[in-house]
Design brief:
- The protein is an alpha+beta fold.
- A two-stranded parallel ribbon has the order 1-4. A two-stranded antiparallel sheet has the order 2-3.
- The radius of gyration is 17 Å and the shape is globular.
């Protein structure tokens, strides 16, 4: 790749995340030679905004920056349709506390709202 790329690095393993693309329904994982690596997606986004670099981040992280015109999507025809789940996990009990029930309801409503405005699929 001839662009200066920024990649996500997993904090626990220090492994660099592979970029994921899809072509003709087939998933392609691509190792990128990155000149910067961070374990925080918001830091990556800010680095890209400040330095005009290339990055692959989830739509929900970059949606506002795209709307403001701070970044521009590229390679959209290769965008993956992989669904990364957002899960709410809690201990299995017969009764959930009121706090957990309220949080689960909030997350369900938030996910629905983000889907309506095309921030998540």
């Amino acid at each position: 790749m001839q662009h200066r790329c920024v990649s996500f690095i997993f904090q626990q393993t220090r492994r660099v995340a592979k970029w994921k693309f899809e072509l003709d329904g087939k998933a392609i994982n691509f190792s990128v030679d990155s000149y910067l690596q961070f374990d925080n997606s918001e830091v990556i986004l800010e680095a890209v905004i400040q330095r005009a670099d290339v990055v692959q981040l989830p739509k929900f992280i970059v949606a506002q920056a795209i709307a403001r015109g701070d970044v521009q999507p590229i390679l959209q025809s290769y965008a993956t349709q992989l669904r990364l789940p957002i899960s709410v996990l809690y201990p299995q009990k017969r009764y959930l506390s009121a706090k957990v029930r309220v949080f689960v309801k909030f997350m369900t409503e938030l996910a629905a709202a983000l889907k309506r405005v095309d921030v998540v699929d």
